[in-house]
Amino acid sequence: MSRYAVRARTSELDPERDFEEINRLLATVEFPWDINQALSFALFRTYAVPTVGQLLFDTGEFTGRVQKRYDDTTLLLDAVLEHGLDSDEGRAGIRRVNQMHGAYDISNDDMRYVLATFVVTPVRWIEDYGWRQLNHNEVVAATNYYRRLGALMGIKDIPVTYTEFARFLDEYEDKNFAYNDGARKVADSTLALMATFPPNDKAPAWLINIFARSLMDDALLDAFGYKHPPRVAQIVSRAALRARGRLVRFFPVRKAPIHARDLPNIRSYPNGYDLTELGTFPRGCPVPQH
Q1: b/e per residue 224-237 (b: at least 16 CB within 10 A)
Q2: Predicted confidence band at 219 (pLDDT cuts at 50, 70, 90)?
């Protein structure tokens, strides 16, 4: 398979009809590392909205059991991606997410914003650090995938195009990013977790912390009250990621998809897991659905 076989395939597909297949190819074959990194940093953006960050702190999940919470969220969303939005596994994953969200008073705007981070952040990450740029079909397909997921989550007034998602995200951040003690604690906990992920665990935690903060924009750093890293650290960190992207072009082509359960970051379930038991049960375990 040639280095550009996936791009050739996605160029032939219809992003209005085949958006699941296109998005699956991007996330599991073409850019699994990049998209995983981008979504990890998307989490920080959601914390910087005080109504989101404080709620996550209040649950205690992102400070007391951050590894499990990270794993559960990743595995639930990956089951939807792997098996399909309308598959039994996909609907089970979405049902679990909806049950968790339904236990709290979350505004539709906050839900739309979190959804927007899943659409926009990976595209911007790949634009900056990917080994190639996304084509039109890929951006449209990723947008349509999350529009469909958002609809299944009951989110209203979902943006239609990628441009609309990006505009909504930027405007929401301009209006809502602000410091919050609970959100800062959640961000600190997540940064500490990232330092334990392979191969980060081979470096000093303080170095990983500087590297991560060097990839955050000023508005995000200010929302957490984080000290801005030295300019040289930002230049070196971002240059290293761009250099990686250039090198990946010459790596052997991935022949099999990689899923979240295959990642070394996912560590809570060495003996496997039941999709319906992932996540939290704030209202108690519901009656099993048949």
Answers
A1: bebeebeeeebeeb
A2: very high
